[in-house]
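Task card 7
Instruction: Convert sequence to structure tokens.
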Amino acid sequence: MTEPTLATPPGRLRAGRLHGVLPLNKTAGMTSFAAVRQVRRLLAERRVGHAGTLDPAATGLLPICVGQATRLVDYLHLQPKRYHCVVRLGVRSETLDTESEVVETGDASALDQATVAAALQRFVGEIEQVPPMHSAVRREGRHLYELAREGREVEREPRLVSVLRAELLGFRPGRLAEAELDVVCGKGTYMRVLAADLGEAVGTGGLLGWLERTGYGSLTLADAITVEQMAALDDPASALLPPETAVAFMPRVDLAPPLALQLRRGQAVWVPRLPDPRPQGLCRAHGPEGDLLAVGELQGNLLRPVKVMAWGAAVPAGGW
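Output:
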């Protein structure tokens, strides 16, 4: 696992609080909620939350925010995700994956790699997806998967999602064919729906056979650690990356002590010198010691705080 180099100290603070981002490698069979529960137990920290649910059968990168870093989850959601998956063609299922009964629906023998690759490119860009019934989307005050378990199906409005890139890595022909994909997408994209829609596009039906999340913003699977590996550490908190990992994609603005103090108090500040290229819009503001002070919005040279980090008086108690 790569050692963090950003400035805000990860791990345990003298105040007894933990703040950071854990790049968890979720194993198959574990729900995202169960992953959070185990991390909460290992760290003895109540404020723990994940960014971007992974279905129980899926594996891979699940960013988990701890302490004050939980306030940055919304900014993680803004960043693209990368998936490695296998789509099975010639079959369908109610859940659009292998978690429900799989029914053979078509003969995929006539398909070849070029045909599937061409069909896949139709799903690159801004596309519409209808959320699956077996999902956490709420309707009538309840999750869709709760309604689905009762045998109910309700109308769902299509949602606009973004697929930034989709590449066919490999193709296994046959009556039941398989397509191996590498996909980079934005918030709210359902890979199960993409798999099923690809199956419809080639005329055979399809479902998601296997899924691994390999990237999330600046994080990759190479950065990640399993719950078992974390539990084996002398100090499980040493697995945390600094909180600013969640906003590493934003331009950085460094503030002198007087301006840092004003920003900590929630006041807008005039920044006389800005880095080149000159940032505008959302940025991350750091203090003279390199610590993350806030997420702010720049309008010209005026920096308005959007979310101020409340580290309190805690200081590092050793660590890296």
